Amino acid sequence: MYLYSITINIEDQVNDHWLDWMKPKVDQLLQHEGLVRQFRVLRILSEELDNGSSYSFQYHLPDEASIETFNALYNTLIANDMLLHYRNKFVEFRTPLLELEW
What stretches of the chain show up as alpha helix (H) in DSSP? Predict the structure, then answer.
């Protein structure tokens, strides 16, 4: 199983509006059957004061090939629009991970 983690730090002034904006976008992404097996969003607690709020969006994908499909879909449904609406208000880091049998 692959985990695709997208960490976003958003300025506090737009945080509430951005969360409301983000929810239907993510819901639309999750509707693509068979792509995302499991999803969760977490607020990161170890952040600096006056440095915005950070979130980890975690998407579990079935195989390595789905990472490219997911990226294209994420860019179309979320990332491009987020640049238009929240330019210079956020920083985003994407991290593909492979879950190991331990």
Answer: 15-30, 65-74, 80-86
Q: Which two tokens stand for residue 68?
A: 């490219």
Burial class (CB in 10 A: 0-12, 13-18, 19+), 70: buried
In three-state form (DSSP H/G/I as H, E/B as E, the rest C), the secondary structure along 84-96 is HHHCCCEEEEEEE
Per-residue pLDDT of the chain (102 residues; tens, 9 = 90+): 899 999 999 999 999 999 999 999 999 999 998 899 999 999 999 766 568 999 999 999 999 999 999 999 999 999 999 999 999 999 999 999 999 988
